[in-house]
Amino acid sequence: MNIITHNPFRVLGLMGNSSEKELQKQISTIKAFARVGKSKSFDYDFNFVGELSRNIENIQQAASQIEQAHKKLHYSLFWFISHSPIDEVALNHMNQNAKKSIEIWNKSLKDEITNANFNSYQNFSTLALIYTFKNDQININTLERAIIVKGKLINSEYLQSFSELVTGNRILTNSTEISKNFVNEIIELLKPYLDKSNGITTNELISLFDSFPKDTQKYLSGKFTEVPLSKIENKIEKTCKKRNENPRDAGEYGEEICKATKSDIYTLKKLLGENNVQFQMISNKLANEILQCSIDFFNKHRDEDEGFDPGDYALRIAEYAKSIGANGQIKDRINENIETIQHWVDDKPERERQEAISYEVEFITKQLVMFENQQDSMSNVENLLSKCKPQLRIIKNKLGKYDEFYINISSAVVQNAQNMLVASVNSATTDSSRKQKLTINIIFKPTTPLDRLFEEALKLTFSLGYFDMNSVLREHYNNNLQGIKSLARSLSISTISPEDRIRSEIQNLESELSSIKSKTYYANEMHALRNELSEINQWQMFRSEETKKSQVREQQGKIDRLNTKREAVKKQEISRLEEQIIIKKRELKELVQ
User: Domain coordinates of the chain in residue numbers?
Assistant: First the structure.
């Protein structure tokens, strides 16, 4: 805060509107004290402002700084003046209670600055500026208030009155130049805090001057555009080079430049305005480079990496390029490429669906082709089902039970297996009028006994029932199942399905488990031991108390050991049955999957 803490008026212990005579007298007094090694203090030192040093050197420097009228005007803007009774009252409170001084001057501020209160605008804004910096932190609200109030004075018709008050003559004032100098001093004050965690951002600083004229705002903007422009240009150049050398990582480079330039491009937009030619040129250039990162990354991975989908990542980078605010041909180019990448992203579910089942579909298709060229046989049917079932299960898990494609390919397996199964059964029953013909007639002479053939046919038919199939095929399957069951019953073959058999076994095991849990093992033995203990506890002549206790302990030990034994036996039986139930349930699960 050099412009305030080391303000020449403060160094000389004067008000900003002190006369030339008061100035010379003060200089002489301070120098006289300095020559004898003493430092003179004054009422207007205001120690709360900061440390103050007075020696011959800085006294001479302070005097030279306000020799010229325009310099005197400049430095007085950052100090206090005494021009009215209100000022005198407020200044009297400064050393003891500066906040009271702020209240006094604040009360005299009106919506409009006048010749009667311009001094309050000056003093209030200076004191508010001092209170902006406390405990190595910035109070942005106080700073904003200080700048707005000071700006009202600088850009009012009463600036001339203020100038005459502090310079003592009618020099011509130029509010534009004074505003620029004021801007420069504020920037210097804020440099240690600019874009720091405990300070203020560049954009916040620029926003503080929104109440100032456009030419002042433009001047302030110009102070901050050179650096971000240079940083963006440099980042574009480096990104372009890396992208050309390694397009595989272009997405990462695009994301890096997005993050690295976000603040700078926002700053330029705030400073220059989005319609500014310079801003449009740099934003187009930046957006185009970010888009190219998206394109190169997308093309490289789409064409070369089957296991990686670049769509979402590339689209995110392209969308950021769009958010920059490019125009003209660059804007059209961005939109066209976003549309292309978006189409790719939208097709992702279908691509993933096809890719996810490509191996399984190819495998099943080959099995069906081989199956069609084989002779009718139960073993071929069993072989087809055993090979296709795991692949169908994978497709089902990936696509869902009700997916149309899954239902169709599962139905194809069932249809082929059922046709061969029915053909095999029909061939085996053509020589007997009591045997029912089902559907397809293919000459087949069984090499195994008829009952074993039907047992195998029934088993395979039950297996087919666990495959998913369309409604028409399901109806056809149910009819064939009833026909095979009827033939099986005629041969005294059990028609209980494997699923029903396992469920019945599980039910029996669970019933046995429930019985075991309620069963009491070694009940008779335990009853006998407890009776013996009761007899031991009865009084007997010629037996000492010690002998009795020993006998009780021995008998209780037998009871405890039997208890431990029966619990162990029960636990072992429960564990055995629970394990069997788990095995059966697992068997059932594998059957129906």
Answer: 2-212, 221-346, 356-495, 510-592
